[in-house]
Task: inverse folding
């Protein structure tokens, strides 16, 4: 899965309608250029491609003040909404997902109802345990990584990473179940989410 599809669809959806500069500003504000391969050129390319694919609707508005071509504002279509939520749900439950995709999914999880987010994260925990069990069929951490030579350190790293992520996921589920954060249809989303929120403060 490409993180940029999830990020761009989510960013446009946050605004209702947004032009490329707004999307770029939001993703930079979230630091996506630090933890993903999201670069300005890839953002504009993704917007145009997803418009061609019917995931976004492109609205041409007034010409650029600098005399360039008309500015284009994008809006997520019904097909794009379906794609967005499909990507989001898949990213939340899949353990062996790229780090940038997982990070984007956590950033957008509040677009789901609270109960669904909890269910997806619990499924994530189950899949981590299942993945760990499949690894430890061949490698028992208690025997020490040296039992397999230095290659054992790779499996040791995998197991420790899985344990850490499972613990973090359980903690997140607990916080959400106790009422943390504002989820879909519960009220106003987090006020500091968009770059323009920061500028308005």
Result:
């Amino acid at each position: 899965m490409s993180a940029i599809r999830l990020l761009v669809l989510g960013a446009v959806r946050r605004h209702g309608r947004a032009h490329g500069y707004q999307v770029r500003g939001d993703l930079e504000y979230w630091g996506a250029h630090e933890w993903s391969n999201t670069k300005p050129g890839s953002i504009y390319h993704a917007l145009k491609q997803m418009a061609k694919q019917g995931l976004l609707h492109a609205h041409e508005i007034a010409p650029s003040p600098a005399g360039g071509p008309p500015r284009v504002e994008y809006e997520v279509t019904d097909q794009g909404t379906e794609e967005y939520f499909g990507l989001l749900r898949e990213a939340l439950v899949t353990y062996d997902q790229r780090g940038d995709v997982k990070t984007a999914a956590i950033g957008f999880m509040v677009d789901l109802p609270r109960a669904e987010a909890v269910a997806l994260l619990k499924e994530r925990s189950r899949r981590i345990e299942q993945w760990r069990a499949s690894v430890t069929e061949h490698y028992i951490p208690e025997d020490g990584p040296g039992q397999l030579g230095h290659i054992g350190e790779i499996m040791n790293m995998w197991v420790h990473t899985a344990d850490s992520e499972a613990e973090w996921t359980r903690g997140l589920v607990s916080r959400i179940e106790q009422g943390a954060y504002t989820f879909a249809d519960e009220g106003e989303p987090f006020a500091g989410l968009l770059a323009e929120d920061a500028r308005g403060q």
